[in-house]
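Here is my example:
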Amino acid sequence: MINPFENALRQLWGAAKIGNVDGSLVERLSRADKEITVTIPVVMDDGSTRLFEGYRVQHCASRGPYKGGIRFHPDADINEVRALALWMTIKTAVADIPMGGGKGGVVVDPSTLSSGEIERLSRGFVRALWRDLGPDVDVPAPDVNTTPEIMAYMVDEYEKLTGDRSGACFTGKPVETGGSAGRGAATGLGGFYVFAALREKANLPESATVAVQGMGNVGGNAARIFHENGHKVVAMSDSRGGIYADDGLDPVAVEKYKEESRSLRGFPGAREISNNELLELSVDVLVPAALENQLTADNADRVKAKLVLELANGPTTPEADDILHTKGVKVIPDVLANAGGVVVSTFEWQQNRAGEKWSEEEVFDKLRAVLVPQAEAVWHDALAKNMTMRSAAFLLALGRLANEPKIGA
């Protein structure tokens, strides 16, 4: 089984070696500031009490409060959360926003819980951790299988426990309860802004063919945004498999069909494919927007895409990175490509603290202004030094982290 934290460390050490980065900084970033494991008792609908294991890893706060999502997933474990927290430290530094890196998780299959049980679990997570959270300390957000509604439960519980009414301890909230306009589309849209800034440099056509793995919030929005901007989405998938159409798919129609049929099977004008087949399609752009470790040493040599846009966290292993680089496949790494979510989360935090409300247009303009210069800088550095974009992004982040006086203090 692939350990995502080991992969994250290898990415860190590999980039640091290329850039001759100070060893004390690398050693410092190889460990989290704090790791918390909690037991969350939840009264179930039948009156019984069930215990859930939860985690919060606070990796590095030298540039600002810990920032990172909370995922509800049966395969969540401490090594996954460690990796995600380290990647978030790098991501916030790449985006050059005033946040650090953290992550949380609860070991649970939320599809087996009622809405009431999910609410009680969400509130229980806050009761277990509230002393280690706060607008100036640690600011969680949604992640896999968590929603704006879950954030609203957490905000309400935190307010009851602390009296803090700013709402700034959690982001990704519903707009009507302090969330930011544009937060739902932010990760997919940010990825598109990065892609659009680099498309010509990567010698891709004005209308590219695109395959998107994953139909959650990120993948669904990304597919729609690419389609709306004149690109041809030829494949989409969820956890059970996908569909392909030479003439392209309408992502909105696909989403509607899935919602009504609870499956992609039988979608008109498309043939069924597996997730593995989707990853190996001959397309201009492959968008892994599901979970970690999708591109590995076992399948990277069969990837035919010209460019990989990582909207999932950690979808490509170090071995796959090397293979793709040798093949000439450009990989826009997660720490740049999917940074739109944490950028707009930071905007939400700033709005909450200032008592402001920005329009969606203003949020998207600010998002583009943050990400495009970083994308261009990473591309330039990777080209100039003949290294992967991932190494270039890590080195950009490490340079910013090295200049923070609190590191190692």
Observations:
- The longest helix spans residues 360-385.
